[in-house]
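Re: weekly structure request thread

Next one in the queue (156 aa):
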Amino acid sequence: MTSVPASFASRLAALATRPAPPSSKPRRIGAVALGAFLAFAGTSHLTFARSEFQAQVPEWVPVGEDAVVLASGVVEISLGAALILLRKRRVPVGLVAAAFFIGIFPGNISQYVTHTDAFGLDSDGKRLGRLFFQPLLVIWALWATGAWKALRAGAK
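Done, posted below.
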């Protein structure tokens, strides 16, 4: 009798409850650096760069721009702190961080498509260049937390 492959959601749930595998020093440094980056970005959402972030919220988002910026700032601060402090839960934190980066990607696409200036991205070339940075953040989150390795191991 052959077993039916587990659903993607149940695999993710298994990853979230499994203890984190040992981490290398470069991965730990990468996780802490990404955590610091996220905490800083989240703080900037709530303070000095709030209007810049509001300019990036697509018009089609059914929630007010300020609410989106405040909520995403809180999420970024939380993810940043979790990446730094929750070493035993780094795999699920990495998965959530990667999902967050994917979730905010439409805002970057919207900024490019609508030619919205923000954060010094005042040309289509600069805005297009930024689009290529977002997948690197996803990869960074998955690599630094060991989530990429855990996902590959879970697929076997």
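Residues 4 and 10 are 12 Å apart (CA to CA). The longest helix spans residues 90-113.
Next request, please.
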